[in-house]
Each structure stands twice: as C-alpha cells, then as structure tokens.
Design brief:
Strand content of chain B: 25-35%
Oligomer: heterodimer
Helix content of chain B: 25-40%
Number of helices of chain B: 7
CATH class of the largest domain in chain B: Alpha Beta
Largest sheet of chain B: 6 strands, mixed
Largest interface: A-B, 35 and 38 residues
Number of strands of chain A: 2
Distance between the termini of chain A: 34 Å
Helix content of chain A: over 70%
Number of helices of chain A: 10
Structural class of chain B: alpha/beta
Strand content of chain A: under 5%
Radius of gyration of chain A: 22 Å
Order of helices and strands of chain A: HHHHEEHHHHHH
Strand order of the largest sheet of chain A: 1-2
Number of domains of chain B: 2
Shape of chain B: globular
Strand order of the largest sheet of chain B: 5-6-7-3-8-9
Order of helices and strands of chain B: EEEHEEHHHEHEHEEH
CATH superfamily of the largest domain in chain B: P-loop containing nucleotide triphosphate hydrolases
Structural class of chain A: mainly alpha
Distance between the termini of chain B: 28 Å
Number of strands of chain B: 9
Largest sheet of chain A: 2 strands, antiparallel
C-alpha cells in the first residue's frame, strides 16, 4: 500500500519538512557516493528511516515489487553482458565492472525508493498543507506537491470503485493472462475519462473556495517546528554538501 | 440590492457550435431564493455558472450580452460532492475551514465561521471524521457547510439534494431559505420542484437555453 499510514512514530510526529528533508538528503547522498559499499550504507540508512517511522513492513512490499525487476534487469545488462574483466560468481561468468555498476545503480534506486515510500507513509498530507501554509508557500506549489503525494492512493481508490462497478455489470477479472489484459480496457478508459471530468469540477470547487483569491492562506493548526529539527535539517544540508565536495575532491566515496 | 443582473446574456462553451444560454435578461436581488427548473439540456447548470461568475472565468467559453455581479463572496455547490472535496484535508472541520482560510481571514474568524456553518448544515458531529469515509448524503452536507463557511452573499447550488434523503432535503431547503432571508441571493437548480416550490421566492423555468417563465414559484413550477 502506497500512501499515508497514520501513526505515532517520531517521524509521524515530526514537522513534515523533517522527514521530507531526510529523504531528500538520502536521495542526494545516493548520487554523491559511487561505490557499492557507500551506496549500501545509504540504503541501510533509508531502511533505518522506514524502521524509525514504523512503516518498514508497509514500505517493503511496494519497494520489493518495484526493485526486483529493476535489479534483475540491471544484473543481466551490466553483470552478465558487461565489459571485461570477468570473474565467476555462483557459477556464472560475471563482468566485474558491470557487477559494480549494477550494485551501485540498484542500491541507489533501492535507497531512494525506500526513503520516498517512507515519506509517503509518514507525512500526513493535511499536516504538510498546514506546514506549507504557515511558511507562505503558494497554493499552486502546495497543491502540486500534495497531489503528487496522494496521487497513487486516490487512483487506487477510484480504480477499485470502477472495478466493482464493472464487475457488477459482468466483467470477469480472472482467467488467462490475455483475458486479464483485455479486462484492463473497462478499467483504464473510465479511470482516465473520470479523472479528466473530476479535474474540471475540482478546479471550479477550489476556485470557489478562494484559492485564487490572491490572499495569503491562514494556517489554522501549523505543526510545531522544534529547534532540534531545524538543526537536524541544517546538518543534513551540510552533510550533503560535504559528500559532494568529497566526491569532487576525489575522495573515492 | 441587485446581486446578479443579466441583460441579453448568452453563453457558448469553448468548442461548442451552439450557445447553451441565449438572450437572458434577469435581475436577482439579495434575499431572493430563485428555483431553476427545466428539462435536461435546458441550461440550468450553465446559468448557475454564469450567474456565479464562474463562466467564462473558470469554465472556458464566450459570454455575450451584459452581466453585472455585485456579490463579493460567491459560493457554489454541485450535485456530486466527492468532486468538490479539496483532497487536501483529512477532517471535515479542515475541509469546511478551507474556504475562509484561503481568503486569508483571521484564524479566529475562520474557526467561528467553520463551526457556525457546520452547525447550520448539521454536520458538527462529523467534524473529526475523514471526509473520504462519509456517505454521499453526509458528504453533500459537508460541501454545503463548506460553501456556507464562506458566508456567501451569492450562493448557487446545482441539484444539491441529489444525495440527500427526503428529511435532509427538507432541512437543506429550509436552511437555504434562512440564508436568503439573511440577505444572500440564492439560486437552486433542482428537479425536485415539489419541495423547492415551498421555499423559493421566485422560479425560473428554462428551455433550450432561454427563460420560458419567470415568476411566482407555485405558478411557474405548476
């Protein structure tokens, strides 16, 4: 399940910018380092973030579903079909630089995936709106960010409703893979067309609720932003800058 | 005081060959509760959009003739409540407060308007609920509360009772009469003429984008 999971973990209680900044720092760090070992450290930190948020179990499944095919593709492309020199691993002839490349790319993807799935699970869209409102962020930016964070759960919910309706009209979801692919038609078309119609009405509804009034929105219940959290975000920024500086100085991270 | 005045007004949606409204002349004043009725395609929804100032500002199209809207706080309610949720709020209270907060009103004023609107729409007991978990009828009342929280001087509603049971429909129409009596101009498009005729102060019957009848509800909607 991708989306917000209510909870009381330190990440749930933190100011929404803190988990966002932490995930952002992990993303940048994953690009700053270039060896399998250091990428592995970043991936472990991402998993630790999910653990801290108490959402590792919820994050693991979608991460696994996305990461496994990607890892498979990377290993085939780089490790099996990569350049010389070759070595032998588990009885297979493996390109050593290709394997390194696959580990770096796969580790980077996994770290980013876990970090951002964690953010989706621990950051309440409503609290994020309040936090951004309190900072005077424009509604357009706020809506763009929060809509992106809530897109997957909203589409899933709508798809489930459409599937139920289509099943009531006789759509069969089981059967051969070909039949399953054919069943996608009655789902995708209403999903896309319904979303387009809904956008029209929602634009109108949001306009009617004053989002284009030009006034700065009033924050009603802004989340607390403690000094320690602000310090943590500065530390993250400094650490990321330090990592990139070390990389460009040839530190071999 | 005139709130909406149309003189020879017409409206054609972007890409449409024919206008949806033609040659409408109308003057609606504060305190009026105007019932709109007509067969499908008569133009009631379009008239609401034009009268509320949403077309062509938000809904693309061409407006002809003259339109003067003096209302400063218009609000709109559609038949399908789930398309009117902001998608940004996790409680009913936050959803209702969204409008006045967007207008930058002081926090205390927003909270007071929110509580008042929730009481008026009889959704104060749902304040802490996630809007996504409400029934269609509950959600529709939340959307009405969201509109009322704006303290509108012009309220346009398109089949607002579509999701409501008969008792809730009567309560809504009684509320709309009170809103009009407090000084707002209220437009309601509904197929439920039997109920609206009891509360409306004026009725418009539309046909093919034109006003066919305009007058006392009991006569126009008979």
């Amino acid at each position: 399940m991708i989306g917000y999971v209510p909870g009381v973990s330190p990440l749930h209680r933190a100011h929404p910018y803190t988990p966002l900044a932490t995930a952002g720092a992990l993303l940048l760090a994953a690009f700053a380092v270039t060896t399998p070992a250091t990428i592995g450290v970043i991936a472990v930190l991402a998993v630790a973030l999910a653990l801290l948020g108490g959402v590792l179990e919820r994050v693991a499944r979608p991460a696994f579903v996305i990461a496994v095919p990607t890892w498979t593709l990377l290993l085939v492309l780089h490790a099996l079909l990569g350049p010389e020199p070759f070595g032998v691993l588990a009885g297979l002839r493996v390109s050593e630089p290709g394997l390194t490349r696959a580990l770096v790319l796969g580790g980077r993807l996994t770290a980013i995936l876990v970090a951002f799935l964690t953010v989706l699970a621990v950051v309440s869209p409503a609290r994020l709106v309040e936090a951004m409102t309190a900072r005077g962020v424009s509604f357009a930016w706020m809506y763009l960010l929060v809509s992106t964070l809530t897109l997957v759960p909203r589409l899933r919910e709508r798809a489930a409703r459409i599937l139920e309706a289509q099943q009531c009209r006789g759509l069969t979801l089981g059967g051969s893979p070909l039949a399953r692919v054919a069943a996608l038609g009655p789902l995708v078309l209403p999903l896309v067309l319904g979303a387009l119609v809904e956008v029209d009405e929602q634009v109108l509804a949001l306009d009617a609720r004053g989002v284009t009034s030009g006034q700065r929105r009033t924050a009603l219940d802004p989340p607390a932003d403690h000094t320690m959290e602000r310090v943590w975000r500065v530390v993250l920024a400094v650490a990321v800058v330090g990592l990139f500086a070390a990389r460009f100085a040839g530190a071999g991270l | 005081m005139s709130v909406v005045r149309l003189a020879g007004a017409g409206f054609t949606y972007a890409g449409a060959a024919e206008p949806s409204l033609r040659d409408l002349t109308l003057d609606v004043r504060s305190g009026e509760l105007v019932a709109l009725a007509g067969p499908a395609g008569a133009g009631t929804t379009t008239l609401l959009l034009v009268a509320g100032g949403y077309a062509p500002r938000v809904i693309a199209g061409t407006l002809t003739g003259e339109r003067v809207i003096t209302a400063r706080r218009p609000a709109i309610v559609f038949a399908a409540p789930w398309t009117q949720l902001t998608g940004l709020c996790q409680t009913v209270r936050a959803e209702v407060a969204f409008g006045p907060a967007s207008h930058g009103r002081p926090r205390e004023a927003v909270l007071a308007a929110t509580e008042r609107a929730m009481r008026q729409a009889q959704v104060d007991h749902l304040g802490g609920r996630d809007p996504a978990t409400l029934s269609g009828g509950e959600l529709q009342r939340v959307i009405v509360a969201s509109a009322l929280a704006l303290e509108p001087d012009l309220l346009v509603l398109d089949d607002p009772a579509a999701e409501l049971d008969p008792a809730a429909t009567d309560a809504l129409y009684t509320l709309l009469r009170e809103v009009a009596a407090a000084g707002a101009a209220v437009f309601v498009a509904t197929p439920d003429v039997e109920r609206i005729v009891k509360v409306a102060t004026r009725a418009l019957l539309l046909g093919r984008g034109r006003i066919v009848k305009d007058g006392v509800p009991a006569e126009v909607l008979a």
